[in-house]
Amino acid sequence: MLFITLAVLGCVAASTQSPVVSTGCGKLHTPGYHAVHGNTGKNLSITSDGIPRYYTVQVPTKYDAQKKYPLIFDYHGSTDTPLNQHDNSAYYNYTNKYLVVYPRGRGLNWQGPTYAAGSNDLLFTDDLLAHVAAQYCIDPQRVYASGKSNGGGFVDTLACSTVGDKFAAFAMASAALYTDTNLTACHNKKRAILEAHGDKDSVIPYVPTKDGRGGPLPNVGKWVGWWGQRDCGSNAKPTVDTKPTGYNVTTYSCNGHQDVVKHYHLAKGGHCWPSSDPDTFDNQGGSCKGARVLDFTPKVLEFFGKWNLKNGPCS
Ligand SMILES: *[C@@H]1O[C@H](CO)[C@@H](O)[C@H](O)[C@H]1NC(C)=O
Ligand SMILES: *[C@@H]1O[C@H](CO)[C@@H](O)[C@H](O)[C@H]1NC(C)=O
Ligand SMILES: *[C@@H]1O[C@H](CO)[C@@H](O)[C@H](O)[C@H]1NC(C)=O
Ligand SMILES: *[C@@H]1O[C@H](CO)[C@@H](O)[C@H](O)[C@H]1NC(C)=O
Asked: What's the average model confidence in pLDDT over 237-241?
């Protein structure tokens, strides 16, 4: 009985989704970043919804085929590529503990905004997760999603979906939140949510005064408050840390879930994945100088490190 009670607390157990099973343990993989399969010149691809879909993968140094790795799906921005996002988040530079997969959007966009190609990217995510779990040795309790801009908005769409029940935490930078424009838009999901957004973001403004390229957008500060209410109830109160230089951190905590919503509000941040490194993909353009006050990637890894499907707020 005790076992059943504990199992029901898990995200997937509480949802209509079947648990992810990793049958990829024992299969050998070469460490490093892979955009093509072996030396065949073929893209890494699967068929989803009847069409070929592509992804790239970062295999950890000293990949141990018998060890269960936590997994991150990292989604690129609109018109960006998996490689661009790999260079933005630069997970490889901070950790060898995660397998990271970079899905490729059809038309380099993700579902949600009006400009997207009309693909079922939630199904693609679910199909790709099953595929990756069959090819690599992963820990199904520790699957995470991150993304930038349109990719960040899609991470929120995922958080608000039943496919998202298989993910333990969600992280976004400069998220294009086209599918989440009011408190009730998220189908009563409770999730561990991390986001960074700058006041100098002209693509997805912190306080929009008109529709974005893909439709109406929420006020980012209000959206953070919606997540606080979804996770912690209608009386949820944020804690705001104004001590850091160049940004404030808003958090919500409840029910033993410390900082289950965490938001970095950058005074001078542009439309970026914040990083102090001038060599990330975003920073090369120079428009992200105002976001160099924050190295977002280690914050994301710290956040992911706290959550799994059993200890999170998932419902
Ligand atoms: C992967 O496939 C996409 C879509 O067909 C293509 O544009 C891209 O150049 C391919 N990448 C590699 C490394 O072959
Ligand atoms: C909230 O957003 C959802 C999804 O976009 C939409 O269907 C619904 O009409 C919105 N509700 C309100 C009260 O605006
Ligand atoms: C942080 O919050 C304080 C108090 O509300 C405000 O004065 C300040 O402008 C904020 N700073 C940033 C970087 O958002
Ligand atoms: C990678 O890490 C090194 C050492 O900490 C740092 O100097 C460099 O800026 C980082 N590069 C990226 C792309 O994050």
From this structure: 98
Q: What is the pLDDT of residues 293-312, one digit of tens each?
A: 999 999 999 999 999 999 99
Query: Does residue 295 fall inside a structural domain?
Result: yes
Residue 27: pLDDT over 60: yes
The distance from CA 225 to its chain's CA centroid, rounded to whole angstroms, is: 19
Burial zone of 284 (CB within 10 Å; 0-12 exposed, 13-18 middle, 19+ buried): exposed
Ligand 1 centroid distance, CA of 36 (Å): 8
272 part of a folded domain? yes
Kindly calculate the radius of gyration of the chain based on its CA atoms and give it in whole angstroms.
18
The pLDDT score that the predictor gives to residue 37 is 77
Looking at ligand 2, which residue's alpha carbon is closest to its atom 11? 182
Contact 263, 196 (CB under 8 A): yes
Give, using CA atoms, the residue closest to atom 2 of ligand 3: 242
Ligand 3: lining residues by beta carbon, under 6 Å:
242, 246-248, 265, 267
CA distance 297 to 258: 20
CB atoms within 10 A of CB 21: 11
Torsion of the alpha carbons at 245, 206, 189 and 118, rounded to the nearest 10: -130
On whether residue 311 sits in a domain, the answer given is no
End-to-end CA distance of the chain: 21
The CATH number of the domain holding residue 75 is 3.40.50.1820
DSSP tag of 77: P
**Range(s) of the domain holding residue 190:** 19-306
CA 96 to chain centre: 18
Q: Residue 314: CB partners within 8 Å, gap ≥ 6?
A: 10, 11, 14, 15, 165, 168, 189, 190, 191
Judge whether 71 lies within some domain: yes
Q: Are 250 and 262 in contact (CB under 8 A)?
A: yes
- Token digits of residue 60: 């950890």
- pTM of the entire structure? 0.93
For a mutational test of ligand 3's pocket, the pick from 207, 220, 242, i.e. the residue with the most ligand atoms closer than 8 A to its C-beta, is: 242
